Amino acid sequence: MTGDRVYIALGSNVGDRGAHLAHARARLAALPKTRLIGVSRIEETAPLPLGPVAQPPYFNQMLLLETTLTPAELLAQCRAIEAERGRERRERWGPRTLDLDIVRYGARIVREADLTIPHPELPNRDFWQREIAELEGEHV
Q1: Is 125 marked active-site?
Q2: Active-site entry in 85, 87, 104, 125
């Protein structure tokens, strides 16, 4: 399969954070027209100070996939996986059982109402940059 290389950020700070990330890894790896290429180590980070309420720390991890799914198809799959783990979209930057963000999608630029690629927060999240660098070092 020759598809785009896609970086997806996984995050969780509610419930069994490790189990939520493990579920997301397994489900993303099993998507049609998709192959898991790499997985960064899990990092625990403080919540961003942008959130509306105090919240516990996050587990974060980056996955590198190769896929021929469109960005919209992949986004729909990510939202379905989040919902499987009880994610409810109530408040921006609030606590969540599982958050899946499409950070980069090959060389594509997407500017739609519900999807922006590259993710606009990429330059501001050092842990995403570290995790991408880790994956790029392993899978050049």
Answers
A1: no
A2: 87
Residue 25 is among the residues annotated as catalytic for this protein: no
HSE on the CB side for 30, CA within 13 Å?
A: 7
> Where are the alpha helices (H) located in the chain, listed in sequence order?
17-29, 71-84, 126-138
User: Among candidates 58, 79, 72, 67, which has minimal Cα distance to 131?
Assistant: 58
Map residue 124 onto helix, strand or coil.
helix
pLDDT in tens, 94-138: 678 899 999 999 999 999 999 999 999 999 999 999 999 999 986
Is domain 4-138 in CATH 3.30.70.560, yes or no?
yes
Given 96, 111, 126, 130, the catalytic residue: 96
Name the token pair of 110: 């997407």
How far apart CA 5 and CA 58 sit, in angstroms, is: 25
Q: Is 87 annotated as catalytic?
A: yes
Q: What gap in Å lies between CA 98 and CA 89, rounded to an integer? A: 11
Residue range 41-92, pLDDT digits in tens:
999 998 877 666 778 899 999 999 999 999 999 999 999 999 998 776 666 6
